[in-house]
Automatic annotation (TrEMBL), chain A:
InterPro entries reported for this sequence: Tscrpt_reg_PadR_N (IPR005149), WH-like_DNA-bd_sf (IPR036388), WH_DNA-bd_sf (IPR036390)
Domain of life: Bacteria
Protein name stated in the entry: PadR family transcriptional regulator
Domain Transcription regulator PadR N-terminal residues, every copy: 8-76
Organism: Planotetraspora kaengkrachanensis
Automatic annotation (TrEMBL), chain B:
UniProt-listed Gene3D superfamilies: P-loop containing nucleotide triphosphate hydrolases
Pfam families (UniProt xref): ABC_tran (PF00005)
Protein name as catalogued: ABC transporter ATP-binding protein
Keyword field: ATP-binding, Nucleotide-binding, Transport
Organism whose genome encodes this protein: Planotetraspora kaengkrachanensis
One GO cellular component, as annotated: plasma membrane
PROSITE patterns on file: ABC_TRANSPORTER_2
UniProt-listed SUPFAM superfamilies: P-loop containing nucleoside triphosphate hydrolases (SSF52540)
Length: 174, 231
């Protein structure tokens, strides 16, 4: 995720301190993985250097907490460009599960067991996310659903693979 | 597992002609828990559910409800058990097309001998609870698939059963409606203390369960439990 672009977007509603930016970012986008202060100030100083933000005022005293940042018009254009451009889809072609299945088949181990164990582990996480949705607001639901659909895709692949194991075993070991 | 399970199947075999639908399936359901039955198409999920619910008689093996052997019951006892202790939600086609949705929900109560006024008043409470207030007077053919499934959920729970059997309850619905049905079904079951036996091949639906049992070639596996025991 681009922290810089996200900061620029958050600054569009008005100048903020670094601490305030971090807190808003964590609340909205952090999902239990808060930013480090180091990341926050490194990002801000890069944006400053590139002319995408400027200092809106420095209060007297010491330390980074005294600085307020405002987005520049170059910064606004930058967010706009980011939002308008498509994200590159993950190719998903380097996959540990795939490697494990093929290796199990190659070595005469049970790929079916491996798939069953993985399914149980995926379902455990899916239950946790489903529970979290019940207690959360709509934004919470949105991010949990994103995770749930991806886990669901993994599981469908696992099912399909399980159904093809006999054919796969013949081909892999041929 | 401590205490007597609500419902228990042990070593079930069931063949349809040459097809072994169940080949030694076992499962135990505790009171109030939500258990997903998963597995590929044709693996025996629905047959297992039908055996648990006393709809299909296994060729061999035991099914016990609160410790009582279901296959030892008379047909009358078994259908009374289904009517008073169990509720059912299927993929579709379970509502009586000639009755309004309200009358459909009231039907299981009417069959128990509850008077019309009382039965429909209780059915109306379920309409509200499942956000269906405006479809009560419509017939099943006049409501959406999602609404129809919520009517089916209300009908399954109106008698306050001990166990609800749901076979692909969201199979014909899109994601949003499937989610609404699952939320309402599981919330209502938790509130009334009903156990739910949920057959599904969709992981996102199984996400609403407490645990899953996998059926493959007519045999059951409790993989999460095996993993725990292996630790
Ligand atoms: N009434 C029946 N007559 C003949 N064969 C049957 C009958 N019911 C089930 N079978 C067979 O028994 C096997 C198990 O069927 P079952 O309906 O239990 O599978 P399932 O896991 O529910 O599949 P699906 O996910 O497709 O609903 C299948 O091979 C099926 O064709
Ligand atoms: Mg079925």
């Amino acid at each position: 995720m681009s922290i810089g672009h996200t900061f620029l977007g958050l600054l569009e509603s008005g100048p903020r301190h670094g601490y305030d930016l971090k807190k808003t970012f964590d609340d909205r986008f952090g999902h239990a993985r808060p930013l480090h202060y180091g990341q926050v100030y490194a990002t801000l100083s890069r944006l400053l250097k590139d002319g995408l933000v400027e200092l809106d005022g420095v209060e007297p005293g010491e330390g980074p907490e005294r600085k307020r940042y405002a987005v520049t018009s170059a910064g606004v254009s930058d967010v706009e460009l980011w939002l308008a451009s498509a994200e590159k889809p993950e190719p998903y072609l380097q996959n540990t599960l795939y490697t494990k299945v093929i290796l199990a088949l190659l070595t005469g181990r049970s790929a079916a067991d491996l798939l069953d164990v993985q399914r149980a582990e995926h379902l455990r996480l899916m239950r946790e996310l489903t529970r979290r949705k019940a207690g959360g607001d709509l934004a919470d639901n949105l991010i949990c659903d994103h995770a749930l659909f991806h886990l669901d895709a993994d599981l469908r692949w696992l099912e399909l693979t399980a159904a093809r194991l006999d054919d796969l075993r013949r081909q892999v070991r041929a | 597992m401590t205490g007597q399970p609500l419902l228990e199947a042990d070593g079930l075999h069931k063949a349809f002609g040459p097809t072994k639908a169940l080949d030694g399936a076992s499962i135990a359901i505790r009171a109030g828990e939500i258990v997903a039955i998963m597995g590929p198409s044709g693996s025996g999920k629905s047959t297992l559910l039908h055996c648990l619910a006393g709809i299909v008689r296994p060729d061999s093996g035991h099914v016990r409800y609160q410790g009582a052997e279901i296959s030892a019951m008379t047909d009358g006892e078994r259908s009374a058990l289904r009517r008073t202790q169990f509720g059912f939600v299927f993929q579709f086609g379970q509502l009586v097309p000639e009755l309004t949705c309200l009358e459909n929900i009231a039907l299981p109560l009417r069959m128990e001998g509850v008077r019309r006024r009382e039965a429909e008043a209780r059915a109306a409470e379920w309409l509200d609870r499942l956000h269906l207030a405006d479809v009560g007077r419509k017939r099943p053919g006049e409501v959406s698939g999602g609404q129809g499934q919520r009517v089916a959920v209300a009908r399954a729970l109106v008698t306050r059963p001990q166990a609800v059997f749901a076979d692909e309850p969201t199979g014909a619905l899109d994601s949003l409606n499937g989610e609404r049905v699952m939320r309402l079904l599981t919330e209502a079951a938790r509130e009334t203390g009903a156990a739910v036996v949920l057959v599904t091949h969709e992981a996102r639906v199984a996400g609403y369960s407490d645990r899953e049992i996998v059926v493959r070639d007519g045999r059951t596996r409790d993989i999460a439990r095996e993993m725990e025991e292996a630790l």
